[in-house]
Amino acid sequence: xxxxxxxxxxxxxxxxxxxxxxxxxxxxxxxxxxxxxxxxxxxxxxxxxxxxxxxxxxxxxxxxxxxxxxxxxxxxxxxxxxxxxxxxxxxxxxxxxxxxxxxxxxxxxxxxxxxxxxxxxxx
Length: 123
Known about the structure:
Blueprint: H1 4-17, H2 20-46, H3 52-80, H4 88-122
């Protein structure tokens, strides 16, 4: 006879099988995001002259890098343990961080669009 823990582990494994595609996609995006954003940060810090565009790009790359280093590993753990992830505080903190950074990125893109629009009007 199976214990409750064994049943939960088996059900968790069966449920996690359905998310393999998502796990692979997030892992690939995380890897590409880490290397890509490090490259962008290197180029912007050491190769670009100081400007508004440089600050916007650095901020956006930093936010995206934080998402790749902090948020995406959490998503991977969450997808691998759909029934057995029980750290409530960690879940709330990481969800907040993910949503906050995504909203910050979206608002920054709006600021960039407005800046480019006003720059184009002046020219």
